[in-house]
Records
---
Amino acid sequence: MDRWQAMKVFVKVAEAESFANAGRQLNMSPPAVTRIVSALEETIGSRLLTRTTRSVKLTEAGSRYFTDCQRLLVELEEAEAAAAGAYAKPTGTLTVTASVMFGNLFVLPVMTEYLDSYPDVVGRCLFVDRVVNIVEEGIDVAVRIGHLADSGFTATRVGTIRRVLCGSPDYFERNGIPATPADLAQHRIIATTSAWASLEWRFGAEQKTTVHVNPRLFTSTNDSAISAAVRGWGLTRVLSYQIAPQLETGELQTVLTEYEEEALPVHIVHPDGRNASAKVRSFIDFSVSKLRANGHFS
C-alpha cells in the first residue's frame, strides 16, 4: 500500500464526510476509496472512521490521525515544491488567516492583488475570530492583533490598532458624553461575545483603571454592535479600524480618548523562518508593504 496516497485519500474522505464525494474529487470509484481506507485502518490497527448509511465521521483516533496527516502532507508538498524549484518561484496554495473583520477589510484586498501578480499561486483565506493553531491547521501566514506569545515563529510588525469607545452624535445629544470611565454606569452599553469579550473594561496606558460594565445588549459580532451604535442605541467598544468608515462619515465618534489603553500591535506571523517557500516570502514582502501604507492603523 502507498502510505502517502492512503493518507491523502483518508484526509479527503474525512473532509468530505463521504466516500462517494471523496471519490469524485479524487477521480476514483467509491469502492476503491473504501478499500484504501480499510487497508490503512488495518495497517494502523485502529478504526479511523465511523460509517453509517448517511454519514462518515472521524473516531477519536481518526481525529488525531487526521490532524497529523494534514501536517505531514503539507510538509511533503513543501519538500516536493522545494525539489521542483518552488523556493525560487511562488507556486502552490497559500493559506492565510486573520480575524473576520480585519481579514475582509485589509487582508482580502492584499490577497487578491497578490494573486494577480503571481498567477501560479492559489489563495486560501481563513477568517475566524479565534486564535488559529498555525501548524496543526496548515496555515502559511497569520495576521495577529495583540501582543504575541513566545512561539518561536517569525513575526513582522506592520502597525498598531487602538481599542476605542464610540457612539453616535444622536446618542450623545440625548444622553450626554461621558467624561470619565466611571460615567459609563449612566450609559447604555452594547457588548460583544466575540474576541476580547470581557465585562471588565480597562482604561489608561498602564490599564490601572478598571470599570465593570453592565451591558443592556449583547451581540455575537462586532458588526452588529457597531450597527446598534450607529442607530443611536448605546455605546460600544471595538478596535479603531472596525469603525474607520463610520468615523469618516460622522456616523460615530469616539469618546474618552484620553483614557485609551496602549495601542495593540499588528504582526504578520509565519512558522517557517528562513526555510519559508517563495510563496510565503513573496506574500509577506507584498503584504507588509501594503499594510504599513494603510492609513487606518499606524
Note: The longest strand covers residues 154-161.
---
Amino acid sequence: MKKIIILLIIIVIAIGGFFYFRSQIYFSRGIANQNAIFEIKAGEGNAQIAKNLQEDGIISRDVYFLIYLKTHNLLNKIYPGEYLLNGDMTIPEVAIVITNSKKSFERVLFKEGWVATQMADELQARGFDGIEFLNIVDNPTNDLVSQFSILNDKPKEVSLEGYLFPDTYYFSQDSTALGIVKKILNNTESRIDEKLRAEIEKQQKTIFEIITMASIVEREVSSEEDRALVSGLFWNRLSVGQALQSDATLSYIFNDKNDAHSLTQTKIDSPYNTYANRGLPIGPVSNPGLSAIKATIYPKDSQYNYFLSDPKTGKTIFSKTFPEHVENKFKYGL
C-alpha cells in the first residue's frame, strides 16, 4: 500500500511538472513592457540568442525557449536581423517572428504635441493606411476601449486624441491600422505607470483630465520648468473659475500654430474654445509626451496668472497681474 501511495505521488508530481513546464513554454512572458528592437547578429547560436532574449526581459527563461525551438524543429532556423519584440509576447510568438525571414519593420516617429491627423499623414507617407488609422482614432469601438485601463474614464463621445503616445515606433510592413493603434495604446498604458496613476487618484483627478490638461501644456510651452509653472497656473485658474484662455485650444480648432489669435477667433462657438468656455475643453488638443504629463501631475505653484512666449527666443514670460501682462505683450510685440 505504501508503495502504491509513493507511486501515485510520483505520478502526480510528474503530471504537475509536465503541465507546469508546458505552461512556462507556451504561456510565460518576459518583464519588458515596452516595444524594443532586438538585434540578432550573424553567427549567434540558439543558446546565445535565448540568453539575450532573457536578459532583455523578452522571455522568462532561456531554457523554455530552447525547449520550444527543439520540439518544433526550429533550432538553427533563426534569421539575423532586427525585430520588434516585447515581454508581452509568448515564446511561440517570439519564435514565429525571429524565424520568419521576410519580417521587416518600418520606423515611424510621432513627435510630441502632434495631433492624430499628423500621425495619420506620417503613417500614410510610410505606406500604412493612415485613413483607416484616423477612422479608428475618431470612432473607437467599445471593444477596443475596453482593452485598455488608461481609457476607463474617457467620455464615450471623445476620440483617442491625446492617448496616442508620441514616440519612435517600429511597425511590421503588414501591420493593420487597428494593430498600430493597439501598439500605441499599449505604450501609453505602460508610460502612465502605477506610480503616476496613484498620484492622479490621490489628487482626486481623472486620467482624462490629466491627459486633456497635458495636451494643452504640451502645445503652450517646451521646457520642463516652464511646463510645471504653466500647469500650476492653469490648475489655479480652474480652481477659481477663471477661463483657461489657452491659444493652444484655438490652434486645435483652426489647425494653426499661432501663439495668439484675434478677438473674433476667441469668440468662435466650439467646445474646445477655452476663451468662451470655462473649465477644460471637451477633450485633448494634442498628444502629449511624458514631460508634459508629469508637469501636469506635478504642477509648480506660483503667484503668476499670465504668461506669453517671446516670438524671437521662445522664452516664456510670466506676469502676476493683467496690466503687467498687457505691458509684456506690448514689449514683445504681441
Note: The chain has three domains: 23-98, 105-191, 224-302.
---
Amino acid sequence: MKEFQGKPDHDELYRSAELQAGYFTSRQAARAGFQSKLLWHYEKTGQFLRVAHGIYRLARFPASPLEDLFVAWLRCGPKSAISHESALAVYDLSDVMPGEIHVTVPRTASRRRAGMRQHTRPLRLGDVKIREGLPVTSVPGTVADVAKAGLAEDLVRGAIREALRHGLTNKRSLMREAKRYGGRAARLITKHVAESGEHS
C-alpha cells in the first residue's frame, strides 16, 4: 500500500466510494490519506458511517438494500464477485435466500469467513456484471455455477426460465456456459433451454 503524504484526498476517496455505492474499506481510506485517527474523527462527526469492521459508507449515500453483499465483496477484494445463490437473489431469479453469502474469488482464500461461502474460479472478462454498483457473476455463469454446485433442478429450471423471460440472458449465452462447464451444469442447462419456449 502506498505511503500517503500530506492532506487527506477527499476526491480520491469519493471516487473509490462512488463506484461502490458509497462504500469503502479502511484500506482504501488509508490510500487516500485517511488513517485510523482521521477515520475515527469522520465517523464521530457523522460523515463516515461504519457498517462493519474495516468497512464504511459515505453518509451522503443512502444505505443499499444489498449492504451485506457489499460488505462480503469488499472483504474478499476487488477481483471477487457475488455468485451462486446470492447472485440469483440479486437478479431476482430465485425466492430462496441462501444461509450464507456466496462469493467467487480468483484463487483460494487464506481463511474462511463466518457467514460467507467462498468459491474459487478464474473470473474472465465478461464473467462479471455490475448491479447497483456491486460486482456479480453474469447470469449465464451464475446459472452454470449453481447447477454445477448441486442446486435443486427445479430451482435451476426456474432461474433459466425467469432469466430468459426477463431478457437477462439468451439461449446462446446459456449454451456457451453449458459447453464451458460440462457435467451436471451442461446437462441441466441443455435440457431446460430446449424446453423453454423463449427465443434465443
Note: Residues 67-195 form one domain.
---
Amino acid sequence: MKKKIIVLLIITAVAVGGFFYFRAQVYFSHGTQKQNSVFEIKKGEGNTQIATNLQNKGIISNKIYFWFYLKTHDLLNKVYPGDYLLNGEMTIPEIAVIITNPKKVYEKVLFKEGWTAKQMAEELKNHGFDDATFLNMVNNPSQDILSQFSVLADKLKSATLEGYLFPDTYYFSREATPEGILKKILNNTEVKIDTDLRTEIKKQGKSIFDIITMASIVEREVKTDEDRILVSGLFWNRIAVGQALQSDATLSYIYNDKVDAHSLAQTKVDSPYNTYQNKGLPIGPVANPGLSSLSAAIYPKNSVYNYFLSDPQTGQTIFSKTFEEHVANKTKYGL
C-alpha cells in the first residue's frame, strides 16, 4: 500500500511539475533570435504554419507553446496578415498581442542612399506619416535628441541632422510619431558607424561630422564602390593642398536639382554649401550617405587623378590627371 501511495505521489508530483513547466514555457519562454527582425504573415496562412514559421525564425522556442496560448485565449484564426517587427526576447503573450492587433502592423518605408532629409520626409508622407513635423525636427533637433546619440557629439551646433539619417529599409508602426521615427533612424546610424569606424576616424584626426559630410558628396557624385574611393581620395587631396572641391553635388543641394554640370553663373552663387567659391568641406552634409560612401570617405584611395566627370550617356566616371585633360574630356563628352 505504501508503495502505491509513493508511486501515486511521484506521478502527481511529476504531473504537477510538468503542468507548471509547460505553463511557464507558454507564458515566459523566449526564442533564440535576439535582434529585431521583420516577420511576415501572409494572407491565408493558418495557425500551425504561423507557429512553425515563428519557431523556425527563432522568435519562439516551440510552436506547441504558441498554439496552446492562442487556443486557450480564443485567438486561433484571429491573427492579421502583415509585416511585424519581432524578436526572441519577447514572450509568447507579447507576440500574440502584436499579431492579433491590426494597429500593430508595421509600414515598410525605404529610404534610398543619397536622399536628402526632404526626400525622406516626402516618402514618409507617402506612407501616411507626419512629414512636416519630422522635417522640422531634423532641421531643428532638440537637446533631448542630440544628447541621446553619441554619433551626434561632434556635429556643428548650427548643422541640421542632414547626413545622419542612415538610408535603409525601416518598419514603422502605423501610429509611430515623428520623434519615434527620427530616433529609430538615428539609432540605426549609431549602430552602422560602429566602434571600428569611429576608432579609424579618430586615428586620422577627423571628426564623424567631417566624414559624413565628405561621404554625402561622394554619394551624390559617383555610383560604384571603386569610383567612390577614388573620388574620396581626390577630394581629400584637394583639401590638403588648398584646392576647392568644385563639387556639383553641393550646387545641386543649393538649387535642389539633379544637374551633373552647372553653368558658370550657378557656380558663383553665394552659399556656404558652394564648394566652387569656398575651399574645404561645405558647412554640412548634402545628402544621407550609405555605408559604401562612408567607408570610402574613411578609407580613400590615392591616385594620380585630380579631375573627373560623368559620361552623360553611360554614367561612367572619366578621370584625368591634369586640367587640360579634363577640359578635353568635357569637350569629348559634350559637357
Note: The longest helix spans residues 2-28.
